[in-house]
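Following the same procedure, sequence and fold were stored together, as reproduced here.

>
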Amino acid sequence: MVDYNWHKRNIISLFQQEKEVVLYTKDLHIFYGENESVKGVSLEFEKNKITSLIGPSGSGKSTYLRSLNRMNDNIAIASVKGQVFYKDVDINSKKVDVYAMRKHIGMVFQRPNPFSKSIRKNITFALERFGLKDKQKLDEIVKTSLKKAALWDQVKGELENSALALSGGQQQRLCIARSIAMQPDILLLDEPASALDPISTSIVEKTLLDLKKDYTIIIVTHNMQQAARISDYTAFFYAGEVIEYDQTKKIFTRPKIKATEDYVSGHFG
C-alpha cells in the first residue's frame, strides 16, 4: 500500500449555478462498529449525468454508494453521521419513509439478483405491492422498462418464463429494468458489469449511456476504461476519503493530484 500522507480536504462544488444538482452529501461519515469506512465525504451529483466512483478495494466507495439510499440501514453494526440531501431533504432524517425514498433512488447490485419469478413478475412485483393493479398500466410499464434496458426485443415473447433462465447480462439488464419500473430520478449501480463478459458489459454500458437522458446515474467501478468511457464525472476514493473529484476527462488526462494519476495509470490499486 502506498502511503501518500494525504490531508483531509473539502470537495469544492464543480458545478456552475445553471447546473442542477439532484443529490449531494455533506460531511458524511460511515462507521462499521469502531472502524470509520467513509470519512467526511462531501460530493454533489448533477442531474442527467453519469458519475463514477473509483478507488482501490476497501476505499469506501461502495459503502458511500449504499448510503445514498440508506442501504447501510440493513447492516446492524453500521452507523451514519452527516447528511445526504435529495431535493433538499436529508434522507437520513427519521421523518423520511425509507421505502418511499427508494422509489426515487433505485439500486442495482454487483451480481444480478432477479427474483425467482417470471420476467414480467420481476417488473411488476414491487409496483403491485405499492398498490398498482391496473393490468393495462402494468403491461405498459413492463414494456417501457424493458425497452429502456435494451431487453424488450429479446424477451417480449417470453415474459412468463423464469427470469433465472436469462443469461447473466440479460439478468443484469432485467434488474436495471426493475429499478426503472419504479420511475426513479437516480440509479445507483455497484459494479454492475463486474460479473459479465465483455459483450454483455458493452451492452450494459450502452444502456447506461442511453438512460442518462432520463436518470442521474452513480456507478461504482473498478474498471478504469469503463469509467473513462461512460462517465461525465469521476470521484477518486482512497482510505475512506475523496482525494479528487472532477470531470472524467480531466481525472484521466490532467489529474491535479499525484495519487490520482498513479491510480488511474495502474501504478497501485
Summary: Residues 1-12 have pLDDT under 50 and may be disordered. The longest strand covers residues 21-32. The beta strands are 21-32, 35-46, 50-54, 78-86, 89-90, 105-108, 186-190, 216-220, 233-238, 241-247. The two ends are 8 Å apart (CA to CA).
